[in-house]
Amino acid sequence: QDGHRQEALHQDGQGDYAAADGQNPPRVTQKQVDAAPYANRSDLLPKCLCERHGAVSCPNAAIGLHPIHSAEEFDRERYKELAKSKKVVALGEVGLDYKSEYVSSKERQRTVLGQQLNLAKELNLPAILHCRLAHNDLIQTLQHSNNSTISGAIHCFTGALREAQEYLKMG
User: pLDDT tens-digit profile of 14-52?
Assistant: First the structure.
């Protein structure tokens, strides 16, 4: 849970968001599943999502090591295996998070982000980029990396107009 929530929504404790009034559920829900148990069985990850959330049709998935967990080892082969599922459509959330409790790991976050961007490029997957209080470093990383063929989206953008314009220039 990365703390990004819209005020009109509340979390039900299992990674799903519902309308605060209990009526009219939102059209988009966030599902978070620990993929570690499925590292050697990428075929089970979408099945797990469906069963856990009672889905009638299986959702698509994005996989990645969130920047607040960048102290963990980024296991490239594990993520590459998980990406074999046809349901995996993106790498994410990946990025940088410089909120005070994570700021000591800036260099580690940049290293892990670079590894994940390289994997996204190799697998031809878009990246879902998380950025909190780190837009200058993320822009610089994207501009100076050899990842010009990576597509993706900045989710929950909270930056300034100048930063939005920089992202737009990159496509």
Answer: 443 333 344 443 333 444 555 555 455 545 555 555 555
For the record, the structure tokens of 102 come out as: 């994570």
**How crowded is residue 71: how many other Cβ atoms within 10 Å of its Cβ?**
12
pLDDT in tens, 80-125: 998 998 889 999 999 999 998 877 789 999 999 999 999 999 999 9
| Dihedral in degrees, nearest 10, Cα atoms 141, 143, 145, 150 | 100
Instruction: Report pTM.
Output: 0.70
